[in-house]
């Protein structure tokens, strides 16, 4: 940092630690629940310290638990979630990075209309349009396919909006210089805009990957074939048991497992993040 | 709406660039969404076997219902509470994380975790923690002398869903605030430090204004989130109760469409919801973005 | 994972997927259900056993989320002409399904068209009564049905010196007082308040919940659960809430932990919850009893009504496929399958034969309390007040009841005000439904 103020650094650490404790608490509860006997969770106060059934419970999901819920093997579920999350993240970033480029760096008829057409997708809750969207998807013959799982979810404006906001902060001099040098728009995009956007791409990738990974309602609607089920569907499936108590320990163990890939993405992308930042500093 | 002062000139290229997104948006959003909106002037049974055009009757019904009007107030309290709580906490944590060098990566890694929890699961976790009988959080609050019971007390219930909804969003905001903070040139802050400005003053005079594009983006995203994406939190914890004290607009939209299969009434509600958010966004674009410095 | 391995596992995954769906010459029948957890596994098992029992048809059980999600998914699929053959719908969706005349294929007609032998009199009347039309024909196939009962913690009863479960509401009040004096925090709690404390309460006391035979007689039915008896009952609950003799714990089964943890000594909920109660209270003796009643009401106790879900058949498939559906229903309602389902899940058996079979297998001797629900339902022949409910927009009406009752528990409204408002708001929804379906 700029100067050395020990008390301020101490204060920062304190706030951060408190933040981590508060923010992580529910995740901790999930982990603790995954190491207990299911009965411990519903009689008395929920325990705060891991129990002694860690190995037993996790063994149960890998070997019998998932089958018990009638779900396909956990490897296939994770694979489907991974495919879906990657396709959504990459697809969204790809289409929105270029459309935001067009909207910020060009003046052309219908530009404002296009922007609002895209932007308006932020403004209608998914649940309202999910039934007609299902009809369209079914009409295109995309039920039970990876395309049907991912393509309809790519239509959203958050990423476009973010890139637009980001491009607006890039100094005018850069595009001016590019123009004076006689560089075409695509060369400018490739050589200047893309490298500058690296941090944003990394951040967005994290968010979109998790968004895709956590989808529930949509995959549930468009799949009837177990070969396309995702891990989140299987979690919900274990939770929704009418007239009896869910097996919380198995559910929470699956929750923890389902959380690992997105967390790995976060950790891995963080390095890219930082690298991107360091390079822009130069 | 703004573009760059200096723009490129090319005839077909910009259309080519927006085409993919536009195509996906038209097929999978605009078309189905307009069908959903058209529902708002229809009365139709769930299976779509009988359809009747009823004009604005669905809207009239809504505004004749005092309870619908009451849920506006709840929604306002909820949305502002959620947005400010999550953005405030996230900003504070981001500023701190930007300051420290040791352990910064560790903090970041942990702070992003909640985002990895599926909303469908997050609701269950909050139910677990705040359950008046077995929840640890409820237990802790009772130890402090407050009789927590969100199944009967409407304020407790509202606080519960605000905390739960804000919690989910902290990571997201944190990530963006941190990226925003780290893109501020060090030289600017160093210059101010040499001038003798205190860390606090530096934050308000330099850092905060430079963060405004990020803050603006997050404000829009968080409002949209609070208005639209929070039904699963409500669904899993309070189901809109007790009474109607946590029945926010989007929960009602969801419930009427999905549980009650009243597609017309639900569509009318989403038209209203959409108008509110469009109005909010336009106001933000007009008045806030103009002031935002780039 | 390297790119190549990823691709390879992707191929493996798709190959696996296509293998599992490959049907040979057999006709495939899709059955969408809402049973998660172990119940879901049991559903798959039933389908698998049927598939093994013959070679012409393959029933494919597909989990589609909870009850509301399953129903919405089926409706969305119907609108997109991708509907399954069979869908499981919860009891509050009955009126919606019945009104969708062009969309559902009534079960009695299906059996007739398919030439499948089908004897409706072999079914338990209180179970199917909920799902028959005005002429008494079965419209859907009952699958998982249950009825509310009273669970009580015998250890706490002993501590408080209470010998047996209270039979009437005044006795409930007394028991709660004794229990609280012995140090128990709350006397009793309830799940699904509308279903148990108003809908079943009305049937149990042989008073109408709505006019026109609770809606069986026509769409122009009106709610009447604001009678003096209802007001007295809810008012009493409101008073009990103040002393925690009764303690409210949430709209669905959220109150279960109150009973499991011993905070409340008694708990009213679905008879199918018995397995869960026992599993969560391994070290505690738990008794099961019939619901309490008001002794000053003539004819009480009458019989209780069911909740749960039935299987509806959707239109739009080939008649050959419907033959398979009919065959599957015959298999599903056979005494062996039903008795097994009943004993495994705690749901009620749907046929007399299955009930008798379970009895002769000695199941009720080994599991005391498992037959309380059936006895309570079949104790008397149902009257028009206790056959069931057939009300449109019933999901919303239940929500209204929940909201208004909560205002009584928090002391913001009197029982009379709350019930009057609930009736008024509910009647509006009934009129909407009448308009939409005429």
Automatic annotation (TrEMBL), chain A:
<keyword id="KW-0813">Transport</keyword>
<feature type="transmembrane region" description="Helical">
    <location>
        <begin position="82"/>
        <end position="106"/>
    </location>
</feature>
<dbReference type="Pfam" id="PF00528">
    <property type="entry name" value="BPD_transp_1"/>
</dbReference>
<feature type="transmembrane region" description="Helical">
    <location>
        <begin position="143"/>
        <end position="163"/>
    </location>
</feature>
<dbReference type="InterPro" id="IPR000515">
    <property type="entry name" value="MetI-like"/>
</dbReference>
<keyword id="KW-0997">Cell inner membrane</keyword>
<feature type="domain" description="ABC transmembrane type-1">
    <location>
        <begin position="78"/>
        <end position="269"/>
    </location>
</feature>
<keyword id="KW-0812">Transmembrane</keyword>
<dbReference type="GO" id="GO:0055085">
    <property type="term" value="P:transmembrane transport"/>
</dbReference>
<protein>
    <recommendedName>
        <fullName>sn-glycerol-3-phosphate transport system permease protein UgpE</fullName>
    </recommendedName>
</protein>
<dbReference type="GO" id="GO:0005886">
    <property type="term" value="C:plasma membrane"/>
</dbReference>
<comment type="subunit">
    <text>The complex is composed of two ATP-binding proteins (UgpC), two transmembrane proteins (UgpA and UgpE) and a solute-binding protein (UgpB).</text>
</comment>
<keyword id="KW-0472">Membrane</keyword>
<feature type="transmembrane region" description="Helical">
    <location>
        <begin position="192"/>
        <end position="213"/>
    </location>
</feature>
<keyword id="KW-1003">Cell membrane</keyword>
Automatic annotation (TrEMBL), chain B:
<keyword id="KW-1003">Cell membrane</keyword>
<dbReference type="InterPro" id="IPR035906">
    <property type="entry name" value="MetI-like_sf"/>
</dbReference>
<dbReference type="GO" id="GO:0005886">
    <property type="term" value="C:plasma membrane"/>
</dbReference>
<dbReference type="InterPro" id="IPR000515">
    <property type="entry name" value="MetI-like"/>
</dbReference>
<feature type="domain" description="ABC transmembrane type-1">
    <location>
        <begin position="72"/>
        <end position="284"/>
    </location>
</feature>
<feature type="transmembrane region" description="Helical">
    <location>
        <begin position="76"/>
        <end position="97"/>
    </location>
</feature>
<keyword id="KW-1133">Transmembrane helix</keyword>
<feature type="transmembrane region" description="Helical">
    <location>
        <begin position="267"/>
        <end position="288"/>
    </location>
</feature>
<feature type="transmembrane region" description="Helical">
    <location>
        <begin position="157"/>
        <end position="181"/>
    </location>
</feature>
<feature type="transmembrane region" description="Helical">
    <location>
        <begin position="202"/>
        <end position="228"/>
    </location>
</feature>
<dbReference type="Pfam" id="PF00528">
    <property type="entry name" value="BPD_transp_1"/>
</dbReference>
<protein>
    <recommendedName>
        <fullName>sn-glycerol-3-phosphate transport system permease protein UgpA</fullName>
    </recommendedName>
</protein>
<keyword id="KW-0472">Membrane</keyword>
<dbReference type="GO" id="GO:0055085">
    <property type="term" value="P:transmembrane transport"/>
</dbReference>
<comment type="subunit">
    <text>The complex is composed of two ATP-binding proteins (UgpC), two transmembrane proteins (UgpA and UgpE) and a solute-binding protein (UgpB).</text>
</comment>
Automatic annotation (TrEMBL), chain C:
<protein>
    <recommendedName>
        <fullName>sn-glycerol-3-phosphate-binding periplasmic protein UgpB</fullName>
    </recommendedName>
</protein>
<dbReference type="GO" id="GO:0055085">
    <property type="term" value="P:transmembrane transport"/>
</dbReference>
<dbReference type="InterPro" id="IPR050490">
    <property type="entry name" value="Bact_solute-bd_prot1"/>
</dbReference>
<keyword id="KW-0574">Periplasm</keyword>
<keyword id="KW-0813">Transport</keyword>
<feature type="signal peptide">
    <location>
        <begin position="1"/>
        <end position="25"/>
    </location>
</feature>
<comment type="similarity">
    <text>Belongs to the bacterial solute-binding protein 1 family.</text>
</comment>
<comment type="subunit">
    <text>The complex is composed of two ATP-binding proteins (UgpC), two transmembrane proteins (UgpA and UgpE) and a solute-binding protein (UgpB).</text>
</comment>
<dbReference type="Pfam" id="PF13416">
    <property type="entry name" value="SBP_bac_8"/>
</dbReference>
<dbReference type="GO" id="GO:0042597">
    <property type="term" value="C:periplasmic space"/>
</dbReference>
<keyword id="KW-0732">Signal</keyword>
<dbReference type="InterPro" id="IPR006061">
    <property type="entry name" value="SBP_1_CS"/>
</dbReference>
<comment type="function">
    <text>Part of the ABC transporter complex UgpBAEC involved in sn-glycerol-3-phosphate (G3P) import. Binds G3P.</text>
</comment>
<dbReference type="InterPro" id="IPR006059">
    <property type="entry name" value="SBP"/>
</dbReference>
């Amino acid at each position: 940092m700029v100067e050395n103020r020990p008390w301020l650094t101490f204060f920062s650490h304190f706030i951060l630690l408190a933040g981590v404790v508060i923010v992580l608490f529910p995740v901790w509860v999930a982990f603790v629940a995954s190491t207990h006997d299911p009965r411990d969770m519903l009689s008395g106060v929920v325990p705060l310290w891991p129990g002694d059934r860690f190995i037993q419970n996790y063994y149960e999901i890998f070997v019998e638990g998932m089958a018990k819920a009638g779900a396909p093997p956990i490897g296939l579920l994770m694979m489907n979630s991974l495919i879906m999350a990657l396709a959504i993240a990459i697809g969204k970033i790809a289409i929105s990075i270029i459309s935001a480029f067009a909207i910020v760096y060009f003046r052309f008829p219908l530009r404002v209309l296009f922007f609002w057409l895209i932007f308006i997708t932020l403004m209608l809750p998914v649940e309202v349009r999910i039934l007609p969207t299902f009809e369209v998807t079914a009409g295109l013959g995309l039920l039970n396919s990876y395309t049907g799982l991912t393509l309809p979810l790519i239509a959203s404006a958050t990423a476009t909006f973010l890139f637009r906001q980001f491009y607006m902060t890039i100094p005018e001099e850069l595009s001016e210089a590019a123009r004076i040098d006689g560089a075409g728009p695509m060369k400018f995009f490739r050589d200047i805009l893309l490298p500058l956007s690296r941090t944003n791409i990394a951040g967005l990738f994290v968010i979109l990957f998790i968004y895709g990974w956590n989808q529930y309602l949509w995959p549930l609607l468009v799949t009837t074939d177990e070969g396309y089920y995702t891990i989140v569907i299987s979690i919900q499936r274990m939770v929704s048991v009418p007239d009896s108590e869910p097996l919380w320990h198995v559910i929470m163990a699956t929750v923890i497992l389902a959380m690992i890939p997105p967390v790995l993405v976060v950790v891995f992308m963080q390095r890219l993040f930082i690298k991107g930042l360091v390079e822009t500093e130069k | 709406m703004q573009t760059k002062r200096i723009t490129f000139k090319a005839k077909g290229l910009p259309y080519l660039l927006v085409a993919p997104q536009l195509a996906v948006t038209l097929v999978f959003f605009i078309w189905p969404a307009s069908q959903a909106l058209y529902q708002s002037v229809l009365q139709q049974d769930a299976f779509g076997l009988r359809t009747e055009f009823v004009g604005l009757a669905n809207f009239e019904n809504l505004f004749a219902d005092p309870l619908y009007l009451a849920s506006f107030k709840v929604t306002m309290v909820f949305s502002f509470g959620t947005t400010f709580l999550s953005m405030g906490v996230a900003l504070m944590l981001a500023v701190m994380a930007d300051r420290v060098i040791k352990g910064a990566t560790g903090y970041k890694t942990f702070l992003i975790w909640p985002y990895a929890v599926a909303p469908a699961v997050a609701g269950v976790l909050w139910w677990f923690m705040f359950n008046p009988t077995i929840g640890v959080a409820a237990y802790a609050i009772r130890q402090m002398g407050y009789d927590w019971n969100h199944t009967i007390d409407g304020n407790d219930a509202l606080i519960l869903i605000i905390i739960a909804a804000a919690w989910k969003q902290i990571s997201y905001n944190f990530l963006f605030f941190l990226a925003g903070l780290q893109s501020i040139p060090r030289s600017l802050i160093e210059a101010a430090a040499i001038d003798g400005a205190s860390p606090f003053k530096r934050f308000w005079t330099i850092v905060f204004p430079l963060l405004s594009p990020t803050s603006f983006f997050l404000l829009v995203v968080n409002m949209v989130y609070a208005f639209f994406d929070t039904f699963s939190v409500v669904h899993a914890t309070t189901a809109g109760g007790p009474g109607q004290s946590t029945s926010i607009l989007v929960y009602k939209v969801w419930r009427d469409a999905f549980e009650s299969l009243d597609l017309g009434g639900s569509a009318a509600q989403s038209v209203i919801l959409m108008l509110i958010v469009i109005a909010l966004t336009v106001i933000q674009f007009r008045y806030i973005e103009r002031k935002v410095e780039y | 994972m390297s790119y190549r391995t990823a691709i390879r596992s992707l191929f493996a995954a798709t190959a696996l997927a296509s293998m599992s769906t490959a049907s040979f010459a057999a006709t495939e029948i899709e059955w969408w259900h809402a049973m998660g957890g172990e119940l879901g596994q049991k559903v798959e098992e039933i389908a698998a056993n049927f598939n093994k029992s013959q070679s012409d048809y393959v029933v494919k059980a597909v989990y589609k989320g909870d009850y509301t999600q399953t129903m919405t998914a089926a409706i969305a699929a119907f609108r997109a002409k991708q509907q399954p053959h069979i869908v499981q719908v919860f009891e509050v969706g009955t009126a919606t399904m019945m009104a969708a005349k062009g969309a559902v294929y009534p079960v009695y007609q299906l059996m007739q068209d398919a030439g499948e032998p089908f004897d409706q009199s072999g079914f338990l009347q209180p179970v199917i009564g909920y799902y028959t039309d005005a002429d008494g024909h079965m419209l859907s196939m009952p699958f998982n049905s249950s009825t509310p009962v009273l669970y009580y913690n015998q250890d706490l009863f002993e501590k408080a010196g209470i010998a047996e479960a209270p039979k009437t509401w005044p006795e409930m009040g007394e028991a709660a007082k004794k229990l609280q004096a012995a140090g128990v925090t709350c006397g009793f709690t309830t799940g699904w308040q509308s279903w148990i404390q108003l809908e079943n309460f009305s049937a149990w006391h042989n008073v109408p919940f709505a006019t026109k035979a609770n809606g069986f007689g026509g769409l122009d039915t009106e709610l009447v659960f604001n009678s003096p008896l209802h007001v007295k009952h809810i008012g009493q609950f409101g008073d009990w809430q103040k002393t925690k003799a009764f303690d409210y714990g949430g709209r669905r089964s959220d109150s279960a932990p109150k009973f499991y943890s011993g905070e409340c000594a008694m708990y009213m909920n679905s008879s199918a919850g018995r397995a869960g109660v026992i599993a969560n209270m391994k070290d505690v003796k738990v008794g099961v009893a019939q619901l309490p009643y008001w002794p000053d009401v003539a004819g009480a106790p009458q019989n209780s009504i069911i909740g749960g879900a039935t299987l509806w058949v959707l239109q739009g498939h080939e008649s050959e496929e419907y033959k398979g559906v009919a065959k599957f229903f015959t298999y599903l309602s056979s005494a062996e399958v039903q008795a097994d389902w009943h004993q495994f899940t705690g749901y009620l058996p749907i046929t007399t034969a299955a009930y008798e079979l379970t009895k002769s297998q000695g199941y009720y001797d080994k599991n005391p309390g498992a037959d309380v629900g059936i006895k309570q339902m079949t104790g008397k022949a149902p009257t028009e007040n206790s056959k069931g409910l057939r009300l449109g927009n019933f999901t919303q009406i239940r929500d209204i009841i929940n909201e208004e009752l909560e205002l009584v528990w928090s002391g913001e409204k009197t029982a009379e005000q709350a019930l009057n408002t609930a009736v008024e708001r509910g009647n509006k929804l009934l009129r909407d439904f009448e308009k939409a379906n005429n």
